[in-house]
Amino acid sequence: MSPSTVDTHCPYCALQCGMGLATRPEGGVEVVERPAFPVNRGALCGKGRTAPEVLARGARLTGPLVRGAGGELEPAGWGEALDRVAEGLLRTRAAHGRDAVGVFGGGGLTNEKAYALGKFARVVLRTSQIDYNGRFCMSSAAAAHQRAFGLDRGLPFPLEDIARTGCVILVGSNLAETMPPALRYLTELRERGGKLIVVDPRRTRTAEHADLHLQPRPGTDLALALGLLHLAVAEGYLDEPFIAERTNGWAEARPGVMAHWPELVERITGVPVPQLREAVRMFCGTPGGTSRTESGGGMVLTARGPEQQSKGTDTVSAWINLCLATGRAGRPLSGYGCLTGQGNGQGGREHGQKADQLPGYRKLDDPAARAHVAAVWGVDPDDLPAPGRSAYELLDALGVDVHALLLMGSNPVVSAPHAAHITERIASLGFLAVCDVVLSETAAMADVVLPVTQWAEETGTTTNLEGRVILRRKAIDPPPDVRTDLEVLNGLASRLGWEKGFPADPEEVFDELRRASAGGPADYSGITYRRIVEEDGVFWPCPETRPETGPEVTSAAVPATGPGPAPHPGTPRLFLDRFATPDGRARFVPVLHRPSAEEPCADYPLYLTTGRVLAQYQSGAQTRRVPELNAASPGPFVQLHPQLAARLGVSEGDELAVTSRRGRAVAPARVSTAIRPDTVFMPFHWPGEGRANTLTNPALDPTSRMPEFKVCAVRVEAADRVRT
Ligand SMILES: Nc1nc2c(c(=O)[nH]1)N[C@H]1C(S)=C(S)[C@@H](COP(=O)(O)OP(=O)(O)OC[C@H]3O[C@@H](n4cnc5c(=O)[nH]c(N)nc54)[C@H](O)[C@@H]3O)O[C@H]1N2
Ligand SMILES: Nc1nc2c(c(=O)[nH]1)N[C@H]1C(S)=C(S)[C@@H](COP(=O)(O)OP(=O)(O)OC[C@H]3O[C@@H](n4cnc5c(=O)[nH]c(N)nc54)[C@H](O)[C@@H]3O)O[C@H]1N2
Ligand code: SF4
Ligand SMILES: [Mo]
């Protein structure tokens, strides 16, 4: 490492790959390998490698913009821009009340930003109307985690454990494209003799690595998981001692399982019975669940495929039940985990930008939690608002009873379900302020656009999918007229009467976050910037005081800091002795299969499912500005099976019109045997006529309020033959 290289992390996904940023003599930075960081050991995908290109002036915002009298966005000074935002928020509050002001955050924001944004909403604006895009991401898995284990951390073990278990069932994750360096853990698993089962309606690049690929109809994972557990019971794989000692509720969950016999499950999912049996044998190994050695054990890992459904929470519960009943949870090298998505998808849901949450993963409706956090914030607990609406419901209320919005770190014009409707709602706002690094499609609609610094230009922590808190470090100065999100909140708070309480220094914010989280489920109080750097990240919970019965210590040596007890080592592995429920036992949740909110019919005979491609990230706001990534993935497409293409009389490259009950999108055909003949797939990274979210169904999961991005019913035709 040269002296001018700064160790930091990628700005994009939840893997938070370690990278070095080397200052170039001619200015700017370039990415260099950081092999010592354990998660990715130097490997990066193309998005991470090219991330510095978004730092260039041509790609980004370089000064504030305000909407002028002529209706155009015009350059303005920071003073004027911040005054306009403060005025817009105050005016709305005066006219319509506190809950008429909304705040929308993002899972890409650092812990410090997410914390400060939540505090700003609750303390300065005193609005209940705050939520964030993480609701669209892993909220179903989070809800199911809470129900079963009493705690939600994406992976309850480090990624390295995946390589050493016996069998992994990977459900609806295309990590070969969405977290490429993590594929290594699955390859290692198979090299050691372990098995990989992939569940995906498409034969993805990830599924190509599987020993067994189950290819169900979209939206049928709940039946599939119940069917596998039914077979596990029938074939003698129940772990009765584990069920008796470590769980509650099996008696209540069992009847639903027994109602999902193999032939029924084949009919619902389209997965043949022999494949179901093979999957159960691979996962459960020897009967009786006795294989718990290094080569035994099993894990179920889910991602957005089964989660982004109107029954996502129950679906994840069904997969967790499979783990619990077969003794594959709460033990070394076994368990259920969710692969979170955004850079700070984990930490972003712990520190208070979620509608029902206070920092430290505390609940906003818990009087003790309110009292603790109010004391840290120096306010009266009674002044904290109640829980507010979920992300889609908040966006749907814009212009109805929420009339001003402060948006930080999301681009819902592209990424929200039923996007044409949400775009109309955004347009009907009385006032919109957007903080972004680029002029996103949503920022282009704002009354005020505040340009903010990017990852390489600022310092802050994120929490990766393993629950490892890591530090992104500043490597380069931002352009002169760009500010950090923390500086923006500081400037707005002072205009709204809060001279103190919103520091712009990230470490100061983190120290307050530590205090606010102390004693909560996601306790960060023992984590410091220094420890993160010295230990390659620290896993929460990490209380400031040493626990009486220490968890297994597997992180790097903990530095001794003077006299007194040694600091808490952090918690790489959860649930080995007890689950985080009041009685320490995991809970089975009884669940039954149910159809998706929209099933194919005569008018809309096909399933549409949506997701990602390797070279683009999310709404594409950042990656569509990188030429190398655009060359790899220039635009939207509709993936369809050759049989379906033949039936429709279309070929590769033909423009297809895809119509759902909500609208129509047009994109070229990509014909491939990798997808089921009854299903088409579209990536969601682009705005305009190929926008997948014009079509998607905002039906919400009743528990997590997650929209059904992964299933809706559509009609597909050659675009030139469509009557409009
Ligand atoms: N390249 C890239 N990487 C990313 C991102 C990105 O935008 N681009 N985004 C990041 C974020 S925020 C996230 S959340 C993660 C998401 O990571 P993933 O969850 O891996 O990504 P998706 O492509 O949304 O969905 C995964 C798979 O689910 C399958 N699927 C669709 N419907 C169903 C279903 O009903 N059941 C099952 N079992 N599978 C189904 C799809 O075919 C797809 O292959 O990726 C992160 N990494
Ligand atoms: N059809 C369909 N739709 C989906 C999904 C799907 O699978 N299918 N997946 C959903 C999922 S899992 C997710 S996570 C969402 C994501 O969708 P979005 O919420 O739109 O996520 P991004 O595109 O990452 O938007 C982040 C915005 O914030 C900006 N930004 C980045 N860093 C910062 C920062 O530090 N500060 C500020 N102020 N701005 C910043 C970026 O430039 C970008 O404009 O999409 C959801 N939408
Ligand atoms: S896998 Fe994720 S964190 Fe790693 S380089 Fe790619 S986008 Fe960045
Ligand atoms: Mo996500």
Taken as a percent bin, the fraction of beta residues is 15-25%
In the predicted model, the low-confidence regions spanning at least 5 consecutive residues are: 287-295, 550-560
How many alpha or pi helices? 22
Radius of gyration: 25 Å
Largest sheet: 7 strands, mixed
CATH topology of the largest domain: Rossmann fold
Class from secondary-structure proportions:
alpha/beta
- In total, the number of strands is 30
First-residue to last-residue Cα separation:
60 Å
Mean pLDDT over the full residue set: 95
CATH architecture group name of the largest domain: 3-Layer(aba) Sandwich
> Overall 3D geometry?
globular
Strand order of the largest sheet: 5-4-18-17-16-6-7
Q: Can you offer a commentary on this structure?
A:
With 724 residues, this protein is of the alpha/beta class. It folds into four domains: 5-59, N-terminal domain of TfIIb (Single Sheet); 65-137 and 347-523 and 527-535, 3-Layer(aba) Sandwich (Rossmann fold), CATH 3.40.50; 139-339, Dimethylsulfoxide Reductase, domain 2, CATH 3.40.228.10; 606-721, Barwin-like endoglucanases (Beta Barrel), CATH 2.40.40. Helix content is 28%, strand content 18%. The chain has 22 helices and 30 strands. A seven-stranded mixed sheet has the order 5-4-18-17-16-6-7, covered by helices on one side. A hairpin with an 8-residue loop joins strand 1 (5-9) and strand 2 (18-23). Helix 3 crosses helix 19, helix 4 crosses helix 13 (312-325) and helix 7 (221-234) crosses helix 11 (273-284). The longest helix is centred in the first third of the chain and has 19 residues, at 78-96. The protein is globular. Iron/sulfur cluster (SF4) is lined by residues 10, 12-13, 15-17, 40, 44-45, 47-48, 179-181.
